[in-house]
Write a structure and sequence with these properties.
single chain; 384 residues; mainly alpha; Growth Hormone, Chain: A; 17 helices
């Protein structure tokens, strides 16, 4: 890790505290919506879909602005500010529409910062070490998530699961959010601005288009795989207590923390495509264990979800860093595709669950992820 630039290190700590705040919310938000606010699974699907989709256009725009005008750090700072200030507002929500609006506002912040942040990480990575650099950053990112999950578990264990406690936890996310905002504002240096870039005619290169084309298998995979919210509701359906659901997320986050840097090394050594094959197999395995609807296997499913998440994200981000010319714009397309396809998938899953039940939703997800994995392995994109 001696080759990691200090700006990447500080960006890692920014993500640490920001994801700590998110992790104090995400495991219990579906339960808050369905149990406390008495909304249906279709409403939960709408919330997840809207929150995911709303950042679609902004991710494209922020990536384009970074490449076209060289504006990078201000977009990242603004994005973290939106996220830090919006999360606590969930404590005042009284219905699914207000939750959806606040989550959409919070996702705007993520959409604003995601592509420019990855451009910063890519710019500060050493030659032929993008996998290690993104893997290191993801390690701190997920370590923050794990810390937030353990804090959430401790609070639920000590204070109980009442509505008052849950709302107080939402308010408390302001503290780590502001710490992360302070770090990015004062301790991370902006990348050098290219003065000539704004005078040039901007267009995606052939390398950019090829890189974008290779991302579509991942996008379609996200259309089928369960989001965190549906993992949570499946766990509750098979009898796992609300108090212990944060520990399921801790399993996923712990696996990601332990393996992220290692995956980065493997990506640099063996190539992103080989790691993506492994990631897709882990995603299918996670859905299979959920489909079996056994409490013990649900714990195992969260571990495989962690492997899928960290391996696929690190591989795709490193792949873009290595092969794209206008990396900010391609990162924008990447995150926009993730937002769009995950949003549509969440909406479809919510509707299937509400009208046909959990078993039908699990069949939809397992069948889709398995088919796409087989297609990827047999396609030219899946060949090293």
């Amino acid at each position: 890790m001696k080759n990691i630039d200090k700006n990447v290190l500080m960006l890692g700590w920014v993500s640490f505290f920001t994801d700590m705040a998110s992790a104090m919310i995400n495991p219990i938000l579906p339960i808050f919506v369905v149990v406390v606010l008495h909304e249906g699974m279709d409403k939960l699907g709408i919330i997840v879909a809207l929150a995911t989709f709303v950042s679609y256009a902004l991710r494209l725009v922020s990536g384009y602005i970074s490449d076209r005008y060289g504006i990078v750090k201000p977009l990242v700072v603004g994005g973290y500010a939106l996220s830090a200030l919006s999360k606590p507002l969930l404590g005042m929500s009284q219905g699914y529409m207000s939750v959806a609006a606040i989550k959409a506002f919070e996702r705007l912040g993520k959409g604003l910062r995601s592509a420019p942040k990855d451009l910063m990480i890519s710019s500060y990575s050493k030659s032929n070490a993008s996998g290690k650099t993104f893997g290191f950053h993801k390690t701190l990112d997920i370590a923050g998530e794990l810390s937030g999950i353990l804090i959430l578990f401790g609070l639920l264990w000590y204070f109980g699961q009442s509505e008052t406690v849950i709302r107080a936890i939402f308010y408390a996310t302001l503290i780590p959010g502001l710490i992360g905002l302070g770090l990015i504002t004062f301790f991370v240096r902006d990348i050098p601005r290219q003065k000539s870039v704004s005078k040039q005619s901007f267009a995606l290169s052939e390398n950019d288009k090829k890189a974008i084309g290779s991302l579509f298998f991942y996008f379609f995979f996200l259309l089928f795989i369960f989001s965190d919210a549906f993992f949570t509701m499946q766990a509750k359906e098979v009898g796992i207590s609300t108090t212990f659901i944060p520990l399921l997320f801790a399993v996923s986050a712990g696996v990601q923390t332990l393996t992220s840097y290692g995956f980065g090394i493997f990506i640099d050594r063996f190539g992103a495509k080989r790691i993506l094959i492994f990631a897709y197999i882990c995603g299918v395995t996670a859905q299979l264990f959920l489909y079996l609807q056994d409490p013990i296997l649900t714990w195992v499913a969260y571990a495989f979800l962690g492997l899928f998440t960290v391996a696929s994200l690190n591989a795709n981000r490193a792949f873009i860093s290595e092969y794209a010319d206008n990396r900010g714009s391609v990162y924008g397309v990447f995150y926009a595709g993730v937002a769009l396809f995950a949003a549509v998938g969440a909406y479809i899953s919510g509707m299937i669950w509400e009208h046909f039940g959990m078993h039908a939703t699990l069949m939809f997800s397992l069948g889709g992820t398995l088919l796409l994995t087989l297609l990827f392995i047999g396609s030219r994109y899946g060949r090293p």
